[in-house]
Design goal:
With about 270 residues, the chain is mainly α. The protein has one domain: MetI-like fold, CATH 1.10.3720. Helix content is about 85%, strand content about 0%. It is built from 13 helices and no strands. Helix 5 runs antiparallel to helix 6. It starts with a helix and ends in a 5-residue tail after the last helix.
Length: about 270
């Protein structure tokens, strides 16, 4: 009798697990991606010339080929290093400048039009200058990524501080708290959601900055690989580089989202 009850419980549990799987967001996302790839494969094989559209199967073969040769790691590591350093530097400088502008409101009003102008400037126009100043090595790509993200952090932090309730800050000041203490204990926790939103926006921008730098002058990286493939009329190579970039952006955004949820869980 006990064995029959245990077996029934296991079957019910399995059914619930399968039902939960079919209803999960991850399952539907995976199913959508699989259908999209299947449609692309069929269209590339029977409707369009693979020279123009390539196919997922050809891209998978190229990925395996690049991985075996070590080129995949070689190019990915270069782009990730450039984008990662630019993002890290941009976040530190951007958050610091945003807090300073929020602290010194008169100076912020004077300099804000300049920041908005620089933010609106297409950073591609700065790429030749960075190449002239820093060469075609790592510093030029890092500075290109830095220029793409720093203003996002500055403006978001500035707006986040302006949206704060001033009463807790004024209360801390009347109690003799230092500016450093107020920033660390009051302002930064309160604008954490703004900072994490800046990170989510800046992940893609940092990759764009690294790619622009590689397209203008480089000897490695995913941007360089895409440009070389395009020069050789290698459509599969171009799509391979693009797919890798999409995968990197998706993983990075998920990591930022997980970190953001963990850090801001106390606000719920």
């Amino acid at each position: 009798m006990l064995d029959a009850f245990t077996a029934t419980k296991r079957v019910t549990s399995t059914r619930w697990s399968a039902s939960s799987l079919f209803k999960s967001l991850f399952f539907h996302q995976t199913l959508f991606l699989a259908i999209a790839l299947l449609v692309w494969e069929v269209l590339g094989a029977y409707v369009f010339d693979p020279f123009w559209s390539s196919r997922p199967s050809l891209i998978a073969e190229r990925l395996v080929y690049l991985a075996k040769r070590g080129d995949l790691t070689w190019h990915m590591s270069a782009t990730l290093t450039e984008a990662g350093l630019g993002l890290a530097l941009g976040s530190v400088v951007g958050v610091s400048l945003g807090l300073l502008m929020a602290r010194y409101t008169r100076a912020a009003r004077i300099t804000e039009p300049l920041f908005m102008g620089l933010y609106s400037l297409p950073r591609v126009a700065l790429a030749p200058l960075f190449i002239l100043w820093f060469g075609i090595g790592l510093p030029a790509k890092v500075m290109m990524s830095f220029s793409m993200v720093v203003f996002v952090f500055v403006l978001n932090v500035l707006e986040g501080v302006r949206a704060l309730d001033r009463d807790p800050i004024d209360l801390m000041r009347t109690m003799g708290a230092s500016n450093r203490y107020i920033v660390r204990r009051v302002m930064l926790p309160a604008i954490l959601t703004w900072i994490m939103a800046s990170f989510r926006i800046s992940v893609g921008l940092a990759l764009i900055g690294a790619l622009v730098g590689e397209l203008i002058g480089s000897s490695r990286g995913l941007g360089w690989y895409i440009e070389r493939s395009a020069g050789q009329l290698d459509t599969t190579g171009v799509f391979t580089g693009i797919i890798i970039l999409i995968a990197i952006a998706m993983v990075a955004n998920n990591i930022v989202a997980l970190v953001s949820n963990r850090l801001t869980r106390w606000r719920a």
